[in-house]
Amino acid sequence: MSAGGPQAPVHLPRFEAEGVAARIAPFIPAGLVPLVALVGWIGMALSELPAGPAAITDANAATALWSAFGSVFPTWLTLSLAGLAMGMMFFIMASGLTLVFGLMDVINFGHGAFISLGAFVGVSVLAALPGWTRTPDLALNLAAVGLAALAATVAAGVLGWGFERVIVRPAYGAHLKQILVTMGGLIVIEELLRVLWGPSEIFLARPQMLKGVLTWGGAALEQYRLVAVGLGLVVFASMSLVLRRTRIGLIVRAGVENCEMVEALGYRLSRVFVAVFMAGSALAGLGGLMWALYQEHVTAQMGAELLVLVFIVVIIGGLGSVEGCFLAALLVGLTQNYVAFLAPKLALISTISLMVAVLMWRPSGMMPASRLR
Amino acid sequence: MVRILSGDRPGSRILAVLFALLLAVLALAPFLFEGSRALDTAARICVFAVLAASYDLILGYAGIVSFAHTMFFGIGAYGVALASLHVGRSFTALGAGTLAGMAVAALLAALIGLFSLRVRAIFFAMITLAVASAFAVLVSQLPALTGGEDGLTYRIPRALTAAETWGRLPQIEISLPRLLASRGAGGAEVLSLGGMRISGKIISYYLVLGGSLVLVLAMLRIVNAPFGRVLQAIRENDLRAEAVGYSVVRYRVAATIISAAFAALAGALYAVWLRYVGPDTTLSFDIMIDILLMVVIGGMGTIWGPVAGAVFLVLAQTYLQDILAGASDLGIPVLDRLFDPDRWLLWLGLAFILCVRFFPSGLVGRLRHGPGGPA
After folding, report:
1. Which residues of chain B neighbour A348 with C-beta distances below 8 Å?
2. What is the pTM (predicted TM-score) of this model?
3. Which of A35, A238, B29, B260 lies in the 20 to 30 Å Cα band around B18?
4. Beta A219-222 vs A297-298: how paired, if at all?
5. What is the ipTM metric for this complex?
């Protein structure tokens, strides 16, 4: 062809790098946890500053602030540990709920019943083993707690199986019915707990070796909180491992993503769902026992009360996402502890405000399971 | 008559008779029963009938589950209480408090509704639960404003209290036939009816009864208007309603606001009757559960059902516990506790689950359609 004719436009496709904002967006939720911790520290330091405008001049403001940061550090560390421990417990209670929702679109208001049941069963086991819990022997103490945890998870898991069968299954696909019927289940189980264990609250003492306090850098670190954080991390890690590295985990994740497609491939998701429901209930029972040991008393309505926080965690995290639930639980735990220190009356309001803020930023929660319904 | 009911009859002859009887008993309650307990029960039936019916607006007609209904109820009650305390003992204060409570409740409902119904209706249940519990905590932690856990006691206009006498009923004396009279232990041969003092308390009861009647009729009007039909359409199939051209979010938010306003009005009536507000009587989650039970057992989406449910539940709360107390002396340890009067929620909870599963339209729906009709 001659050079004078019309020429095809130059077309050189190339890979466009994503903008910075788009690239860091997935990591923002993870970054929020340290950010909240930092904000908490700053807030505490500011509250330590001498009051009144006269006390702070430009010259000494920086040094005063600096020394305030140092002086509140031990308190901040104690509170952060408490927040993390609380967060881990929220995560353990909430993780099952969010997975159950993601998998089968079931919203279970009866989840609180498993929390209470786990607490009651576990506490009864501990009460039956006074010899193991009252001696200052770490191995025996942990064995007692382990046994109690086993009993709590088994009891809650079995109850979860029955609950799924009797209450949840007939209401698949109808949200209104689900909410109502699971709420009814919560009421009935709560009353049954009162029938079996009596209407009054039960007080308990933690096993000897979990009572103490470690001091490090001037900060008082309760041993039980350390154990709780450790246990929470173990649960999160093993859950991630199961979900990422095993075949059943693959099916569960695929089911959360698109359940019709997984069923079309020949997997019977309803069975997987029962297993997930039981596992989630068992974890709720474990979380209930941990909460009972943390608060050192148990009531039948504790599950219903915790349900509020569990829902907030699940909403902030994004329905169906385990990672989101984990981060949200830590955020809620930390926020509650810092705010409870700075302004005790606003503790519960602070979590609501956190939820509102997150929902303004991402209307379906931080990391919703990627499926449009 | 049918126009007053907005063309929405109770639905079956038995129900019509029962509701007529209920209205008659409520209307004559101050003269039929002796003692303040019965009158108090009657007033509570009125208030909770309005409250349950207003909850039915969103649960039964719009198909949204809210757990913040007691919050709106409480806002109405606290509105009257705070106005009576700060404005003074007058009818103006009652009116202003009622209006203010209604406005605050509607505003809050609009905020929550716009915020959570925009995303997904399922968020609404969880968010209302969170907001309501936070509100209850806030109220109990601000003693300077709300009286904290102790609540507030205030004075309503003297015309509505027991101290005021409005008059007496004419006394009717009927001389009994000798035969009847002699059977009494030498008793009077004259039966006297009436002659009771009409105290302000009775007037206040009629205020509650009249207010409740007007509110329930107004709600019947709303659900039988085109607005109510659209709500039902959205409940049955929201995608379709959207496709036909109705803004689902707007209708749902509107239903939430209206229902909250009615709940606040019920709260105001309750506050006038009790002359006390506190977190336990107006905001606790137990009341929320009671409302759920009333609406579901009575029959969702019928307005009549929740009214019946309220009557049933309030009566059961007041009198069934005495009956259950008799059943709990069998001498078998666990069974005794099963029938303990404090455990009556267990049985109602079971009834609730069975209703949701098998009779979604509750008692009233059952009576309307008969056993073979649509559930």
Report:
1. 133-134, 137-138
2. 0.85
3. B260
4. unpaired
5. 0.82
